[in-house]
């Protein structure tokens, strides 16, 4: 009678602790009362430990308590986006006004500058298509005129 109260084995003691047999987690092989054994500690999930995750989770809980949906944004974020959008619109308007307020003189200078760029490009294309002996001859003329000018000076 006295021995029936003591567990027959360690296995039966573990079985008594968890009555449901379908538990996926396994119990450790050590006895909780043994002070010589080092008990393993549960590893921390780095995602859940991060500050950004905790803040996001806290914000989601607060939104849920207030009855706000997940799609709605915090007030600060909405205000910042509104300011950015207003700033971009203002910059575009200023650029358009600057283009409209150009004087006729500035417009004419811009047209001439564009024409000169086109002419330079056309000349470069023509020089690229010219035979090599013509290019060499032009270089020789330049060097001969430079040396002749240097002798005169």
From TrEMBL:
GO terms for cellular component: focal adhesion; neuron projection; nucleus; plasma membrane; stress fiber; synapse. Residues 116-141 have a biased composition (Basic and acidic residues). GO terms for molecular function: actin binding. GO terms for biological process: actin filament bundle assembly; actin filament polymerization; regulation of actin cytoskeleton organization. It holds the Pfam family DUF1151. Keywords: Actin-binding, Cell cycle, Cell junction, Cell membrane, Cell projection, Coiled coil, Cytoplasm, Cytoskeleton, Growth regulation, Membrane, Nucleus, Stress response, Synapse. Residues 116-153 are annotated as: Disordered. Stress-inducible actin-binding protein that plays a role in synaptic and cognitive functions by modulating actin filamentous (F-actin) dynamics. Mediates polymerization of globular actin to F-actin. Also binds to, stabilizes and bundles F-actin. Involved in synaptic function by regulating neurite outgrowth in an actin-dependent manner and for the acquisition of hippocampus-dependent cognitive function, such as learning and long-term memory. This is Actin-associated protein FAM107A.
